[in-house]
C-alpha cells in the first residue's frame, strides 16, 4: 500500500484531501490548504497547481456535477463520496485547467485506485473518458442550455439573489464569472507601522494603503511577517477607511469594532486611530476569533483592548463611543471568489436568521454611539435583505438616526440606498462589500 501511495502525484493528493476536509469537517479551503501543502512538502508551481485544483474544483462543482450526472448511469448520491471527489478533480483538470486529457484521466484513476479500489478506478476511467469528449461550453449546452446556475456553477437561489442586488441582468454573467476567478493577493500597509512603498506589488486603485501582489508567498514579505502589514482584500480595507474617515461632531477618541473577528479591519482601524490620538476597542463574540483579533493587534498602537463579548448584549455603557464599525455576520455571498465552498453551504433559510442578527447588531451599535457619532454598517454580501432592508428597518424604528452619504471616491459603486456604497468583484476587483453610514442624531 505504501508503495502505491508514493505513485500518486502529491499535488493531486493535496487537492483530494482538501475536498475531503471541506466535505467531512466543514473546513474552509483557504485554511485547509496551507497545512496540507506543508505536510506534502509542496511549494512553488506544485503548490500553485494543488491550490487551483482544489479551489477551482469546489468553485465549479455545480457544473461538474451536472456533467457527471450525464455520464453516469445512476444518481450521484449513489456514488461513493471519495470517488465523486476524485471525479470532480478529474473534471476540473479536463475542463478547467490546461492538463492533457491522458494525464488528467490517468492521475485521477491512480488516485481512486490508491484511495478506494481497483474496481472504482475502472469506473472512474470510464466516466472521465466520456467527460473528455467535449469541452466545458459544449457540455453546458448539452446538459443545461441557457441555465446560468449551471453555466457559472452557482446555486440557482444565489444567482437570483445576485440578480436582484445587481439590478442589471446584462451584467449578471460578468459577476458570476468574476466569482469564479481566483482573487489576487492584496496586502495592506498599516499606517504608522508600514508604508505602501515598502510592499511589493501594484498599488490598489481605491485604498491608499494597499498593493496587489503579482505572486509569491505574502508571508515572506518582511512587513507582513512582522505584523506591520497584512493580507486584506481592498474592499475590506475600504470599510475601515470609511469608518475612520467619516466626520464626527466633538470628541473623537473612543472607537469600537463590534464584530472584530478575525481582526483585519480592526488592525487597520487601530492604526488609523493611533495616528489621531484615538483608541479602539475590538469586540468579538466567539473566543477563538477573539484570539485571532489579539494576534492581529499584537504590537499595534491605538488599542484599548480586545473583549470577548456578544455584540447584541455588549458590556459597554450606552453612548460610550464616538464611532462604531459593525462588520456584521452575513451570508458571505460577496466573497465567493476567496471562499469557494460558501456557495454550496449557504441555504436560503440562512438569510432569515442572519437578518435578525444584523438588525440587532446595528441597533446595539447605535445605542453605543453618542449623539453626533457615527456607525458604519458593512456586510460582505450584496443581498438586499442583508443590506438595504436591514438599514431601512432600523431607520424606520429609530427617530434618532439618519443615513448620511459616504465619501468614497469609487466609481460605479452606488448602493441600493442613496449615499450607500456597493462594491463588486466584476467592477472593482474587490469582494462585494456593502457600506452604509448612519449618524446618531
Count of all domains:
3
Question: What helical percentage do the residues reach?
Answer: 40-55%
CATH architecture of the largest domain: 3-Layer(aba) Sandwich
Q: Supply Rg.
A: 23 Å
What is the class of the largest domain in the CATH system?
Alpha Beta
Bulk shape: globular
Largest sheet: 8 strands, mixed
Q: What is the overall number of helices?
A: 20
What structural category do the secondary elements indicate?
alpha/beta
Q: CATH-wise, what's the superfamily of the largest domain?
A: Vaccinia Virus protein VP39
What is the number of strand segments?
Answer: 12
How is the CATH topology of the largest domain named?
A: Rossmann fold
Mean pLDDT: 96
Uncertain parts: 1-6
Keywords: Methyltransferase, RNA-binding, S-adenosyl-L-methionine, Transferase
GO molecular function, one term: RNA binding
Function: May act as RNA methyltransferase.
Family: Belongs to the class I-like SAM-binding methyltransferase superfamily. RsmB/NOP family.
How is the secondary structure organized here?
Blueprint: H1 2-6, H2 10-25, H3 29-39, H4 44-59, H5 61-71, H6 81-95, H7 101-115, H8 118-131, H9 136-143, H10 148-151, H11 156-166, H12 172-179, E1 186-189, E2 202-203, E3 210-212, H13 222-225, E4 229-231, H14 234-245, E5 254-257, H15 264-275, E6 279-284, H16 287-296, E7 303-308, E8 321-327, H17 342-345, H18 348-368, E9 369-379, H19 388-397, E10 401-404, E11 421-422, H20 425-428, E12 434-440
Parallel strand pairs: 5-6, 5-8, 6-7, 8-9
Antiparallel strand pairs: 1-3, 1-4, 2-3, 9-12, 10-12, 11-12
Helix pairs in contact: 2-3, 2-4, 2-6, 3-4, 4-6, 5-6, 6-7, 6-8, 7-8, 14-15, 18-19
Amino acid at each position: 500500500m505504501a508503495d502505491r501511495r508514493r505513485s500518486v502525484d502529491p499535488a493531486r493528493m493535496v487537492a483530494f484531501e482538501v475536498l475531503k476536509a471541506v466535505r467531512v469537517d466543514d473546513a474552509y479551503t483557504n485554511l485547509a490548504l496551507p497545512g496540507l501543502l506543508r505536510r506534502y512538502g509542496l511549494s512553488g508551481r506544485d503548490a500553485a497547481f494543488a491550490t487551483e485544483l482544489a479551489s477551482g474544483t469546489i468553485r465549479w462543482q455545480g457544473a461538474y456535477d451536472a456533467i457527471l450526472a450525464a455520464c453516469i448511469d445512476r444518481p450521484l448520491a449513489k456514488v461513493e463520496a471519495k470517488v465523486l471527489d476524485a471525479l470532480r478533480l478529474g473534471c476540473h483538470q479536463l475542463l478547467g485547467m490546461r492538463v492533457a486529457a491522458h494525464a488528467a484521466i490517468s492521475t485521477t484513476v491512480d488516485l481512486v485506485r490508491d484511495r478506494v479500489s481497483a474496481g472504482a478506478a475502472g469506473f472512474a476511467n470510464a466516466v472521465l473518458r466520456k467527460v473528455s469528449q467535449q469541452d466545458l461550453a459544449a457540455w453546458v449546452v448539452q446538459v443545461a442550455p441557457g441555465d446560468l446556475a449551471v453555466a457559472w456553477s452557482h446555486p440557482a437561489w444565489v444567482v437570483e439573489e445576485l440578480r436582484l442586488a445587481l439590478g442589471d441582468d446584462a451584467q449578471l454573467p460578468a459577476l458570476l464569472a468574476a466569482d469564479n476567478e481566483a482573487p489576487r493577493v492584496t496586502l495592506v500597509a498599516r499606517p504608522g507601522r508600514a508604508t505602501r512603498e515598502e510592499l511589493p506589488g501594484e498599488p490598489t486603485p481605491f485604498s491608499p494603503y494597499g498593493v496587489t501582489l503579482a505572486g509569491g508567498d505574502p508571508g515572506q514579505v518582511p512587513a507582513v511577517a512582522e505584523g506591520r502589514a497584512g493580507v486584506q482584500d481592498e474592499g475590506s480595507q475600504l470599510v475601515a477607511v470609511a469608518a475612520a474617515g467619516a466626520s464626527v461632531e466633538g470628541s473623537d477618541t473612543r472607537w469600537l469594532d463590534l464584530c472584530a473577528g478575525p481582526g483585519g479591519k480592526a488592525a487597520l482601524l487601530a492604526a488609523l486611530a493611533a495616528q489621531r490620538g484615538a483608541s479602539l476597542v475590538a469586540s468579538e463574540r466567539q473566543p477563538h476569533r477573539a484570539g485571532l483579533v489579539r494576534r492581529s493587534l499584537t504590537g499595534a498602537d491605538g488599542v484599548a483592548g480586545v473583549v470577548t463579548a456578544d455584540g447584541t448584549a455588549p458590556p459597554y455603557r450606552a453612548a460610550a463611543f464616538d464611532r462604531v464599525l459593525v462588520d456584521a455576520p452575513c451570508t458571505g455571498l460577496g466573497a465567493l471568489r476567496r471562499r469557494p465552498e460558501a456557495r454550496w453551504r449557504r441555504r436560503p433559510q440562512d438569510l432569515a436568521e442572519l437578518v435578525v442578527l444584523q438588525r440587532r447588531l446595528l441597533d446595539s451599535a447605535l445605542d453605543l454611539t453618542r449623539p453626533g457619532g457615527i456607525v458604519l454598517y458593512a456586510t460582505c454580501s450584496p443581498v438586499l435583505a442583508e443590506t438595504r432592508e436591514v438599514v431601512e428597518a432600523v431607520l424606520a424604528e429609530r427617530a434618532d438616526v439618519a443615513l448620511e452619504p459616504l465619501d468614497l471616491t469609487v466609481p460605479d459603486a452606488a448602493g441600493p440606498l442613496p449615499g450607500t456604497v456597493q462594491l463588486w468583484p466584476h467592477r472593482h476587483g474587490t469582494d462585494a462589500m456593502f457600506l452604509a453610514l448612519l449618524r446618531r442624531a
